[in-house]
Design goal:
Structural class: mainly alpha
Order of helices and strands: H
Distance between the termini: 62 Å
Helix content: 25-40%
Number of helices: 1
Radius of gyration: 29 Å
Largest sheet: none
Number of strands: 0
Oligomer: single chain
Strand content: under 5%
């Protein structure tokens, strides 16, 4: 019986919070300012983007797809 009261109460509180946030208007001045060009980027200069060298394994194993 207590679980039903908890679920019902939680759903009423959640529905009320969603209704308040839906109808509450926030002025655009309060929005966080996003930088157009962030300081950290996925693009790196060409000098820093050198390919990695991978050594070949010394042993190779034959692989067959048939049984």
């Amino acid at each position: 019986m207590q679980l039903r009261h908890f679920v019902s109460g939680s759903s009423v509180i959640l529905a009320g919070w969603l209704a308040v946030t839906f109808f509450h208007q926030v002025p655009s001045q309060r929005y966080p300012k996003l930088e157009k060009y962030p300081t950290t980027s996925m693009h790196t200069p060409a000098a820093a983007a050198t390919p990695a060298v991978v050594a070949k394994p010394s042993e190779t194993f034959a692989v067959s797809a048939s049984r």
